[in-house]
Write a structure and sequence with these properties.
The complex is a heterodimer of chains A (380) and B (336). Helices cover 56% and strands 12% of the residues of chain A. Chain A is of the alpha+beta class. Chain A folds into 3 domains: 48 residues, no CATH class; 94 residues, no CATH class; 220 residues, MetI-like fold (Orthogonal Bundle), CATH 1.10.3720.10. In chain A, the strands form 2 sheets. In chain A, strands 2-3-8-7-6 form a 5-stranded antiparallel beta sheet, with no helix packed on it. In chain A, strands 1-9-4-5 form a 4-stranded antiparallel beta sheet, with no helix packed on it. Chain B has 336 residues and is mainly α. Chain B folds into 2 domains: 79 residues; 241 residues, MetI-like fold, CATH 1.10.3720.10. Helix content of chain B is 75%, strand content 0%. Chain B is built from 14 helices and no strands. The longest helix of chain B has 41 residues. The radius of gyration of chain B is 27 Å and the shape is globular. Classes of the chains: A alpha+beta (380), B mainly alpha (336). Chains A and B meet through α1, α4, α5, α6 and α7 of A and α1, α2, α4, α5 and α6 of B.
Chain lengths: 380, 336
């Protein structure tokens, strides 16, 4: 933009600063994604930035049960492999929880009563004893292993099935799609009326819409909750219904929708509309055949806004759809998990990624319309 | 599958309902007052009536929805603030007396003020700086797109992302939270960041700044590009350096846009609720008004009177911005 500063050292500084900021801004999301596809045992002991290096893990395993023993000479021997086919290298082992790293691999550890335990680097172990092994459970073996990085989709499989995220995903879609389409229809008609039709009180309506743009949601919640209880009781359906939340999102999204669309529609050339009127077209025809196709960009902008807003909303969903399992939307489910599975990062990261993936796809594919919408109506 | 089918069905019914209303009511109007046939006198009379009625057909659903979901609740919230927890018994100003006597309110009010000062300032400033820098480099659009990205992430998703960064492992274990890992790398002591009173507010604010900077950047970037080149060229000829051009020539020309960005983020901050709920739920002195209000709505079966009072405080804080917006919109309409 400023030609004089081109190719100066300042330009390199600008490149470096922007790069730095971009890294800061993307790292949190990147960390989340990388963590969500890591093995959960590795995730809980090492940072995601070490995902590509081998990690050291302390693990407890049980040897085979005594019935697997074979007699070799005068010794009773149990053989097996601790790693059971998975990759890795064992470095240290032990037989008690107090000293889990008492022995280096390859050495023979003396247990009590002449029993011995030997563990190899590849996980092979040999337990031997002069007497017969008794009991129903195998000997506990503690070991420390160098485990190579492992990536898996198991976390996603788990949250989608057992944690109920699959169901929530459907619920979110059920809430979002009508809650995006209905306000567009309602607002487009209203915006046309406010832009091109003559009737008393028009200016007052426009001012009211601008005023309602900034009314905090919090003001509406309690009275609406009361009204919903009464209405739900009247129809005998309870207060938490999909219809209820669609209309709530429609009501709260309308000011921005009307404002955005009115600005756009009012800016369309008057000649087109006047000449259609002269040709005898009614306002309904004009709206359907001229206004709607012409205002596609504005409609698309608002649709994206509303979609992101509804999909990402937590407050309205919690108040008007409730917290019971079969109605939880993704954001609500994520919040529940944050409470109940607070320390299980493999669950949380995978769940969070599932909740943000759809908005991110919408964002990156339709960014153009989003930016245009922001520029015409940056008030909400 | 059954859920998906029923969801699709309800969607189609809901959307069809809207379409049927608009088509149906307009066709009905044309049927009752036909304007294509009949005597000239009748046609002109019908035309007048139809033109008088039609705006209200177009506006009708919007007016009903706005009244029910925004206008009436605002009035009713004011009424409820003078009633007890169930909303049935008039208690005068008891709720207001309670509010101004409670430590919890002053804590959340103070925190809200902190949020109001820090978040809009930081987001607008960073947005402005990034916008002006990305306009000068060839990969600026990619950079902008990436910094804009958090805008698409829900507050609750962002909270999980940042909670992971602030994660704290006690006693010698390897830190898996990025912040503590960095602190340990530089030889510091790991901390449980979100439980440190006062400072934890700032760790929560970072999340909102992370989300909102992209918004500020996009708007301000467009405003910067709208600055006429001549003003900058003139400054260059007069020997102004880069910083002088930025602060003395460019920034003053986009004050209006900066104000819009600032107020937009301010309103968002007043409503912020999800982040506090997810990160701390108001513990360790991080309560804010919106979360407190939500809390009172459901605490012990819900106290509507006290919830409404907190909501009114939020509303009062918004009113100046609302008035300013309406004035600006009116000025724009007259200018057209």
């Amino acid at each position: 933009m400023i030609s004089s500063s081109k190719r100066s050292p300042l330009t390199y500084l600008v490149h470096a600063t922007v790069l730095f900021l971009v890294i800061i801004w993307t790292i949190p999301t990147a960390g989340l994604f990388i963590s969500s596809i890591r093995d959960k045992d590795q995730l809980s002991v090492s940072g995601w930035w070490t995902a590509l290096s081998t990690s050291e893990q302390r693990i407890v395993a049980r040897a085979h049960e005594p019935k697997a023993q074979v007699q070799e000479g005068d010794l009773f021997v149990i053989r097996g492999n601790l790693l059971e086919g998975s990759a890795g290298e064992i470095t240290k082992f032990g037989s008690s929880s107090l000293k889990p790293e008492a022995f280096v691999v390859g050495t023979v550890a003396d247990l009590k009563k002449g029993k011995t335990l030997e563990v190899m680097e590849n996980g092979d172990y040999v337990l031997s004893s002069p007497d017969e092994w008794k009991g129903s459970r195998g000997q506990r073996i503690f070991y420390t292993a160098e485990v190579p990085p492992r990536f898996t989709l198991d976390n996603y499989r788990e949250v989608l099935s057992t944690e109920g995220l699959g169901q929530s995903f459907l619920n979110s879609l059920t809430v979002t799609i009508p809650a995006t389409v209905i306000p567009i229809l309602v607002a487009a008609f209203a915006a046309y009326a406010l832009a091109w039709m003559r009737f008393p009180g028009r200016a007052l309506f426009v001012a009211a819409v601008v005023g309602l743009l900034v009314v905090p949601l919090q003001m509406s919640l309690i009275p609406l909750l009361k009204s919903y209880n009464v209405i739900g009781e009247f129809f005998g359906v309870g207060s938490k219904t999909y219809i209820g939340i669609w209309l709530a999102h429609t009501g709260f999204g309308l000011p921005l929708a009307i404002y955005l669309l009115r600005n756009y529609i009012a800016g369309l050339p008057a000649e087109i509309i006047e000449s259609a009127r002269v040709d005898g077209a009614s306002d309904f025809d004009i709206f359907r055949k001229i206004i709607l196709p012409l205002s596609f960009p504005a409609l698309a902008s608002f649709a994206i806004f509303q979609f992101l807003w509804v999909w990402n909303d937590l407050l309205i969903a919690m108040v008007f759809l409730g917290n019971n399992e079969e109605h939880l939307v993704l954001t609500g489910q994520l919040r529940e998990l944050l409470g109940s599975r607070g320390g299980n990062w493999e669950i949380l990261t995978a769940s969070a990624f599932i909740t943000i993936i759809i908005p991110l796809c919408v964002f990156f594919s339709l960014q153009r319309y989003l930016v245009r919408g922001l520029l015409t109506g940056s008030v909400k | 599958m059954a859920q998906l089918a029923s969801a699709l069905m309800t969607m189609i019914v809901g959307i069809l309902g809207c379409i049927v209303y608009f088509y149906g009511s307009n066709i009905l109007l044309d049927k009752i007052f036909p304007t294509k046939t009949g005597s000239a006198q009748r046609v002109s009379r019908n035309l007048r009536i139809a033109n008088g009625v039609r705006p209200w057909l177009f506006l009708g659903p919007a007016v009903l929805l706005l009244t029910f979901y925004l206008f009436y609740p605002v009035v009713d919230s004011i009424r409820l603030s003078f009633f007890d927890r169930t909303g049935d018994e008039f208690v005068g100003i008891a709720n207001y007396v309670w509010l101004f006597g409670s430590d919890e309110f002053f804590e959340s009010f103070r925190n809200n003020m902190l949020w109001l000062i820090v978040v809009p300032t930081a987001s607008t400033f960073l947005g402005l700086v990034i916008a002006s820098m990305t306009d000068r480099i060839w990969w600026g659009n990619i950079a902008k797109s990436l910094i804009f990205m958090p805008m698409a992430i829900s507050f609750i998703g962002a909270s999980v992302i940042w909670k992971f960064i602030y994660d704290f492992r006690s006693g010698g274990d390897a830190q898996i939270g990025l912040l503590n890992a960095v602190v340990v790398f530089f030889g510091g002591e790991p901390q449980n960041w979100i439980t440190i009173p006062f400072w934890n507010n700032f760790f929560l604010m970072v999340i909102l700044v992370w989300i909102q900077t992209g918004f500020a950047m996009v708007i301000l970037s467009a405003a910067l590009r709208g600055i006429p080149d001549e003003t900058i060229e003139a400054a260059v000829l007069d020997g102004a350096n880069g910083l002088q051009i930025f602060f003395k020539i460019m920034v003053p020309q986009i004050w209006g846009t900066i104000a819009v960005v600032w107020t937009t983020i301010t309103i968002l901050v007043l409503k912020v609720f999800d982040i506090v709920l997810a990160m701390t739920n108001g513990q360790w002195d991080t309560q804010v008004l919106a979360n407190q209000m939500f809390d009172w709505m459901f605490r012990g079966g819900g106290d509507f009177g006290r919830g409404a009072v907190v909501a009114i405080v939020i509303m009062v804080l918004v009113i100046p911005i609302m008035v300013w917006n309406i004035r600006r919109a009116n000025a724009e309409m007259e200018g057209r």
